């Protein structure tokens, strides 16, 4: 974990609204009476928080704090924590401490870079790889003398994919339970960097 400290030179926050409409295919097909089914409209507001710091080395730098916005004003002293798991080159900023007020904030989401070293993230192509394994396991079951080959493939696919989902859920729950402890450790690191 690395800590960037500095004095707030400028901060800005902006919000954008994303409006989209959705119409399910079933609405069009099953509505044979000729009545009109209006689309569903949804709105999502995305807030972007950015801050300019005069770092301790005298250089100015901009940081995106949208995922962990902490209240701050020009002149406040803040520390931002950057982390990546072992072996990962590109980490992320995931928390900040306003040293002037004592307030802190952390990204509440689970990022691969923070949880990879604990084996608690779902890698790219996780389900695809398990699905391919399921055919191999099914073929092995199908080669047993007392099981029909097609039935073996079917059993292998069903059981292996159920196992893949269970393992995925267990990893996500473990990661979610570990997140408060990781943030507590990060906050202790931020406080010790005074």
Automatic annotation (TrEMBL):
Question: Record keywords: Transmembrane included?
Answer: yes
Name the keywords, alphabetized: Membrane, Transmembrane, Transmembrane helix
The source's domain of life comes to Bacteria
Transmembrane stretches, start-end? 130-147, 153-170
Q: What is this protein called?
A: Transmembrane protein
Native species of this protein?
Polaromonas naphthalenivorans (strain CJ2)
